[in-house]
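Q: I'm writing a short explainer about GTP pyrophosphokinase rsh for a general audience and would like to include a description of its predicted shape. Could you first generate the structure from this sequence?
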Amino acid sequence: MTTADDLIALVRTYNPNSNHALLRDAFAFGEEMHEGQFRHSGEPYFTHPVAVAGILAEQQMDDATIVTALLHDTIEDTKASFADVEKRFGREIAELVDGVTKLTNLQLTSTQTKQAENFRKLFMATSRDLRVTLVKLADRLHNMRTIKSMRPEKQAQKARETMDIFAPLAGRMGMQWMREELEDLSFRVLNPEGRNSIIRRFITLQRETGDVIQKITADMRVEMEKANIVADVAGRAKKPYSIWRKMQEKEQGFSRLSDIYGFRVIVATEADCYRVLGVIHQRWRAVPGRFKDYISQPKSNGYRSIHTTVSGRDGKQVEVQIRTREMHEVAETGVAAHWSYKNGERVENRFAVDPVRWISSLTERLDEDQDHDEFLEAVKLEMYQDQVFCFTPKGDVIKLPRGATPIDFAYAIHTRIGSACVGAKVDGLRVPLWTRLKNGQSVEVITAEGQTPQATWIDIAVTGRAKTAIRRSLREEDRERFVRLGRELARVAFENVGKKSTEKALKTAAKALAIDGVDELLARLGSAEITGRKVVTAIYPELENAQGEEIDQGRAVVGLAPDQIQQRGACCQPVPGERIVGITFRGHGVVVHAIDCAALVDYEDQPERWIDLHWQEGTHGAVNTVTFDATIANDSGVLGRICTLIGEQNANISDLKFIDRKPDYFRLLIDVDLRDAEHLHRVQTALEAESNVSSIRRHKDPGLALLGAGTPRREG
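A: Of course. Here's the predicted structure. Afterward I'll give you a sentence or two in plain language.
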């Protein structure tokens, strides 16, 4: 194990003025507190905090962060309390350790109310000091490096959580090296066959073509010398997961993938960056649409660099990143550069971002009034997406996530402008509101008095700020109608179990569900945010697991006239538990659609055909077919394993169709008969956890919105 002297020596290489007495005391305290504890591998537990401290020392972090790493599990896993740590090491370190403890205790993969509420509190609380997050990232990195000692199911859970939460967070904070390592370590657990396949292809490619990296690097150095530019040039093959992701996004095999190599040119000045760009483009052909200038438009985490992709030897495309030494230091450490030391002094890097400013740019767009799931959605949208920069007609720059639309642009300016938006012009041309904005475009928002947000905007907007404002407006507009509908739904739900929905009963249910008042409870019930069964079982929990008779398929949907025939829309395949609406067809009855079905846009101008529907409360039969789009490894026994997993969830496969076959992977559509949304979630979760399933999603096809052959969508 690394000793206290080893750690202090490492810290002193970049900070000779570090408080070695403090570090030694923290080491001794942590070792004493964790005495007798062991990791799954059999090593003393304290080897883990020491390794975390070592990772942060390699990032040249300050003494407080190193000490926090040594103590980060003491409050949670030992007899030490917050008061003990504060008394011995001071308030600052105690609060940092407590912040890491709270973050460790969160179930970040869950969107349940309790976890979401904790995430909200923690996010706001730790926004004052991002060193908590830096310690947690280093903690997760070491756990992933040593994950093989865990049980296979625990490995899969931790790897999925790392891929979904911690790797994107590291990338967003500018720590790209850590993001890549976390992704690769997770990929090794979640899809070892895929990773090994890519590594084998690399070996074969290198055997066939020789060391491409060395050849291209030598060529670039020759060009730099010709132009009298002093530069460090380095190249590397991209990580297996990065290549795998490109294969999935482009739906291409390894042999057809082009930019699998990356090169970096580091120079002295900003002017040299643009000179290098000119030299590169004169020597090699630039690939259109693959140029990004993050020097003139830096990322919010301080990242600055020029990216370009060119065609190198044998027509292979390679990515080149060009930056100065200062820019490179920020690119390596991201937001952490704010705390970095060198030669005993705090690093003065003019490109390093103030963490307080960085975190406030995220939190200012997160609404205190959002419900829990909306808050989680907003956090993920704001934190895990790259940005584009667009201009107002006056020339002001608006930063938005990649994929943002004119609606997001309008709300970024002001909520009032967003709500009144009726159209937009991009670079002077009128465009639909769902247009995806690109870097450098000029956007003009067109507003109209009396305009209010439309329900379809929820699916068009991508920023948390826009989605929250739209939902709030829709809730306020529909609140009275939802309260009336909710009261009726509550009456029916209580009568189904022989009870009455009195005002006292509803007040008790609202309190049990932590909802602010009866009207809010009824509004959520009417808007299908909660179910009548959930309201009833909040008061009568003994009914939670009571299984009554299955509902007859003929009365599965409530809201139809006695003589009306209904059928589920093949386009969206709604299941009990999801919000639904009916569209009438003369002579054919009613087609039931999910409320977010894309096909409903065709009936927006025919409100007389819409029917407000909801599912009957109770147990539904497993007769609702849902189609899954799955990509699985092409290996012996995999398909059988998938079928077994579905069967273990008491679900039946009614059809299976291959739509794409590749040497390593198959893509197929699987029809599964399900009871309700909960049953659907269980099946999908079981498949997502299977290492041989690279992707699984629900398949929806608006083109199937017809009732039957030859039947038009619209009524003439």
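A: For your explainer, you could say: The longest strand covers residues 624-633.
Q: Perfect, that's easy to follow.
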